[in-house]
Amino acid sequence: MSDLQKKNAGEAAAAYVEAGMVVGLGTGSTAAWFVKALAARNLPDLRCVPTSERTADLARELGLTLSTLEDTPRIDLTVDGADEIGPGLALIKGGGAALLREKLVWEASARCICIADAAKVVPALGTFPLPIEVVAFGHKTTANRIADVLADHDIAAPARVREAERGLIRTDGGNLIYDAACKLIADPARLAADLKSLTGVVEHGLFLDLTDLAIIGTDEGVETINP
Ligand code: 5RP
Predict the structure, then answer these.
(1) Domain range list for the chain
(2) Which residues contact 195 (CB under 8 A, 6 or more apart)?
(3) pTM score
(4) Is 80 touching ligand 1 by the criterion CB < 6 Å?
(5) What is the pLDDT along the chain (227 residues), one digit of tens a residue?
(6) Which one of 100, 200, 210, 218 is separated from 82 by 20 to 30 angstroms, measured CA to CA?
(7) Which numeric CATH code is attached to 2-121+208-225?
(8) 130-202 classified as CATH 3.30.70.260
């Protein structure tokens, strides 16, 4: 059952945190288990940098001390979930629309642990639609440029703007999310570089060469994967 697996992964990751650390808190249902387990440990002198407003709300509710990247630009350890975990611990993230703040926190971290249920481990990235954060101004023209890049990667379907009943989804930074149904990302590094080069694209959900350890929850406990 995936929620038990997420819980097992989150709780196992909390054991990696030591007193006095600056800890990056990820976003999503698996990261929430980590935040709860971390708060339960009641370690002294922790400072936590959340990757989204909703994680900040949860951490505050649980009594964790919050900080910001401005006040604590060097993070000891970040623990966060993922939408897909591919070969070499290449990830797709951003299902929860927090990819920009997540990547800023991950890149400021000495160590990053990815936590997930077993279904997130895949032989190749691309089944989960790749989230791409885009500036709202002129977003349809940016989407055309994204479609050109995707076509160059043999991805025929254009990216679709993420929306809910109440309208377009906005990230914590006020941007929009486009989801690209890639099906198969043959060359994640080249796609990451090509998307990043587009005006109007703020960030994409490919997290490459950033994960130091993956903790995968199983029904019985956890398994770990090194890059
Ligand atoms: C949020 C993320 C999440 O980590 C990812 O979507 C996984 O979420 P969950 O743990 O709920 O399955 O990248 O932007």
Answers:
(1) 2-121+208-225, 130-202
(2) 132, 146, 149, 201, 204, 206
(3) 0.97
(4) yes
(5) 699 999 999 999 999 999 999 999 999 999 999 999 999 999 999 999 999 999 999 999 999 999 999 999 999 999 999 999 999 999 999 999 999 999 999 999 999 999 999 999 999 999 999 999 999 999 999 999 999 999 999 999 889 999 999 999 999 999 999 999 999 999 999 999 999 999 999 999 999 999 999 999 999 999 999 98
(6) 200
(7) 3.40.50.1360
(8) yes
